[in-house]
Design goal:
The chain is of the alpha/beta class. It has four domains: about 120 residues, Methylthiotransferase, N-terminal domain (Rossmann fold, 3-Layer(aba) Sandwich); about 110 residues, Transcription Regulator spoIIAA (2-Layer Sandwich); about 120 residues, Transcription Regulator spoIIAA; about 70 residues, Beta Barrel (OB fold (Dihydrolipoamide Acetyltransferase, E2P)). Helix content is about 35%, strand content about 20%. It has 14 helices and 21 strands. Strands 2-1-3-4-5-6 form a six-stranded parallel beta sheet, sandwiched between helices. A five-stranded mixed beta barrel has the order 17-18-19-21-20. A three-stranded parallel beta sheet has the order 7-10-13. A hairpin with a 2-residue loop joins strand 11 and strand 12. Helix 11 packs parallel to helix 12. The protein starts with a strand and ends with a helix. It binds S-adenosyl-L-homocysteine (SAH), iron/sulfur cluster (SF4) and FE3-S4 cluster.
């Protein structure tokens, strides 16, 4: 079979990262092998995110670049595809405005890529932004090589309709994969060498597959041979039930890190956002989680400058962040999204005010993150090496608390053998964005591996 080159660029959340991987898996039997640059690719896919205006703008500027490559190419022209959430939300507009785009498809139809590619190669322009009745998950092939840390999508879509958010429109209604299917995939990943599995969903803790809730699913995955670490994301405070909180106490493989977005610390703004909880309720949930798992590290997402947000509301957000004490956070300026209720609310906050509030919040959150990382210095943690560093001999991994750690392997042999292992690392220095350390137990690992 002809070898063909596949270029995929991914924006947005982990669901999109997972989807891009699956697109590559679907296209593999057709002879497509991934490449890192679009320049000589035969098929270029932009897997897009619609969450904020900036994310969308970047897609259109990238499309311009791909068009130049396509125009300049002599002989058979590459196919250009737009996938993901911008495709879902603005598919018609893309088809109309960008005639050089061959395929547009949403997050729920990429299992049909072989057909779409066939049609596009025949000269047709293809658009597929349906929400099909049958699940794509029934049609996706096994991943080729998952690596030591793998994503596993268990739930998609969202019925929560926060007033700022496009996800319920781009991903559709909430849907949980059957537990047997998830557990089957987890076993295959473990068989291929994955030690860590991150269960993914837009509202992952709303998971309900048959009799299983997320805690049941985590317990079942924890039983699988070879799985040593489990994580899940993203959670909504409303679905953080006692059963799941107990799982943090009872299941050692469940890592002590939780991303639990709060968005705002003001009850008035939380209500306008339709988050359906108060600041106090959020802090009470955190308290419960910390009681169950005292060393848990927390992270969150914040939006500043939501319509109607006053200085007082912002001060409430600062106070909540101060009380919660985070290990790391994402924070954004509110970006009005067409079609969402927030976009037509009164009280739009001027850009300059949003800027100032974001700076103030980020100063606090970065200080918390730096403090959290610095508190790791001198301690020893088990680190899963799941990425290779930029410099030769450098390995990158994660602590249980999701901090990135880099080490220099003692020699070339150790470098090869340490990749994919969980090894004790003593932290020698801490930075805002990560840690550096030295391997404590390489001898043990080396002898185990070569035995
Ligand atoms: N499902 C997750 C988050 C989805 S989007 C949840 O429920 O929390 C990821 C983050 O993007 C959100 O948590 C929010 O902080 C941010 N975000 C979403 N819509 C936004 C908008 N219109 N403007 C700015 N930030 C937004
Ligand atoms: Fe968006 Fe809210 Fe659903 Fe999260 S819970 S995906 S923020 S609508
Ligand atoms: Fe973006 Fe779609 Fe994820 S809008 S954040 S890629 S669900």
């Amino acid at each position: 079979m002809d070898k063909k080159k596949l270029y995929i660029k991914t924006w947005g959340c982990q669901m999109n990262v997972y989807d891009s991987q699956k697109m590559a898996d679907v296209l593999f039997p057709l002879g497509y092998a991934p490449v890192d640059a679009p320049d000589d690719a035969d098929l270029m896919i932009l897997n897009t995110c619609h969450i904020r205006e900036k994310a969308t703008d970047k897609v259109f500027s990238d499309l311009g670049r791909l068009r130049e490559i396509k125009d300049a190419r002599a002989g058979s022209k590459p196919l250009i595809a737009v996938a993901g959430c911008v495709a879902q939300a603005e598919g018609d507009v893309i088809m109309k405005r960008a005639k050089f785009v061959d395929m547009v498809f949403g997050p729920q139809t990429y299992h049909l890529l072989p057909e779409m590619v066939l049609q596009a190669n025949g000269g047709a322009r293809v658009i597929n932004t349906d929400f099909p009745v049958e699940s794509k998950f029934d049609h996706l092939p096994e991943q080729a090589a998952p690596g030591p840390s793998a994503f596993l999508s268990v739930q998609e879509g969202c019925d929560k309709f926060c007033t700022f958010c496009v996800v319920p429109y781009t991903r559709g209604a909430e849907f949980s994969r059957p537990p047997e299917q998830v557990i089957g995939e987890a076993k295959r990943l473990a068989g291929q060498g994955a030690k860590e599995i991150t269960l993914l969903g837009q509202n992952v803790n709303a998971y309900h597959g048959g009799d299983y809730d997320l805690a049941d699913l985590i317990a079942a995955v924890a039983e699988i041979d070879g799985i040593e670490r489990i994580r899940y994301m993203t959670s909504h405070p409303r679905d953080m039930n006692d059963h799941l909180i107990e799982a943090h106490r009872d299941i050692p493989a469940l890592m002590p890190f939780l991303h639990l977005p709060v968005q705002s610390g003001s009850d008035r703004i939380l209500e306008r956002m339709n988050r359906k909880h108060t600041a106090e309720e959020y802090l009470a949930i955190i308290e419960k989680i910390r009681t169950a798992r005292p060393d848990i590290a927390l992270s969150s997402d914040f939006i500043v400058g939501f319509p109607g947000e006053t200085d007082e509301d912002h001060a409430a957000t600062m106070a909540l962040a101060e009380k919660a004490g985070y290990a790391s956070c994402y924070s954004f300026k509110y970006s009005p999204r067409p079609g969402t209720p927030g976009a037509v609310m009164d009280g739009m906050v001027p850009e300059a005010v949003k800027d100032k509030r974001l700076q103030e919040l980020q100063a606090l959150l970065f200080a918390q993150q730096t403090h959290f990382n610095e508190s790791a210095a001198g301690k020893t943690f088990p680190v899963l090496f799941d990425r290779k560093g930029q410099k030769p001999g450098q390995l990158l991994g994660k602590t249980p608390y999701m901090q990135s750690v880099y080490v220099n392997a003692p020699n070339e042999q150790a470098y090869a053998r340490l990749f994919g292992e969980i090894v004790d690392v003593k932290i020698s220095s801490a930075f805002q964005n990560g840690l550096a350390g030295e391997i404590v137990t390489s001898e043990a690992v080396l002898s185990k591996k070569s035995a």
